[in-house]
Amino acid sequence: MTVLAAGDVSPGVLGFIVVALLGVALYLLIKSMNKQISKIQVPHAHEGDPDKKAD
């Protein structure tokens, strides 16, 4: 066991848990974002403007 001097600070287990939880949250957010972006349908230039009506 390491004994720290009076002025030394160590992040310890709590610091590791916080960083690990942030990493998991970031992974889940990126995964969700990729799913939402894949649902977007981009119109192609050759399809024309969908707002214009054909006469």
Using brief descriptors, characterize the structure shown.
mainly alpha; 55 residues; 1 helix
First and last CA, distance? 83 Å
**Main sheet record:** none
User: Proportion of β residues?
Assistant: under 5%
Gyration radius over CA: 26 Å
SSE ordering:
H
Please state the overall shape, judged from the principal axes of the Cα atoms.
rod-shaped
Written overview of the protein:
The chain is rod-shaped, with a radius of gyration of 26 Å. The mean pLDDT is 85. It has one helix at 12-38. It is mainly α and 55 residues long. The longest helix has 27 residues, at 12-38. Helix content is 49%, strand content 0%. The chain crosses the membrane at residues 12-30. Keywords: Membrane, Transmembrane, Transmembrane helix.
Give a short overview.
This protein has 55 residues and is mainly α. The chain contains 1 helix and no strands. The mean pLDDT is 85.
Chain-wise SSE layout:
Elements: H1 12-38
Transmembrane segments: 12-30
Keywords: Membrane, Transmembrane, Transmembrane helix
